[in-house]
Amino acid sequence: PSAPNPRGPGVLDGASGRGEARGGAVLAVGGGTAMDVAKLGNWLAAQSAEPKALLENPPERPASAPPVIAVPTTAGSGSEATQFAVVYRDGEKHSVAHASLRPTAAIVDPGLTASLPPDLTAHSGLDALCQAIESIWSIYATEDSLGPARAALALTWLNLEQAVNEPTAPPRSAT
Predict the structure, then answer these.
(1) What predicted TM-score, i.e. pTM, was given to this entire model?
(2) Which of 92, 112, 88, 129 is nearest to 167 (CA)?
(3) Of the candidates 2, 5, 120, 174, which lies 20 to 30 Å from 89 by C-alpha distance?
(4) 31 exposure class (CB count in 10 Å sphere: 0-12, 13-18, 19+)
């Protein structure tokens, strides 16, 4: 997708394209936008109702969708590991949440961020920093979730500037 955030038409195009495809899985490669479009398009195509109606009112018991394998190429969105997908419709942000939206597998390789320009490295690194802070502050935080969230915050805080200005492998791996 060329837009910085998932837009309704892109998601609907993804659902249409997935409905025409006959593969056994969806490979979602890119940043959070690309992964959310792939997750939602795949999920919408598996349902019997019209995609626009599903975005307005997701079913409680949706049909199973083919597996999604997520390969993030930026830091921070977390879309490769969550049951959430975001879509903007008429300028308004909507979040769709369901366990079946969570990718079946994620292939996370910091080397895939090596070609990001400094501004995208900064943007996605700040996203990772914010996600860590949100995880710490969440009313749903647990002792099990706080450890990784604190580690993510520390790693990102200590390495983001270098990842942006001197993008070698160690700081990119840490952010």
Answers:
(1) 0.78
(2) 112
(3) 120
(4) buried
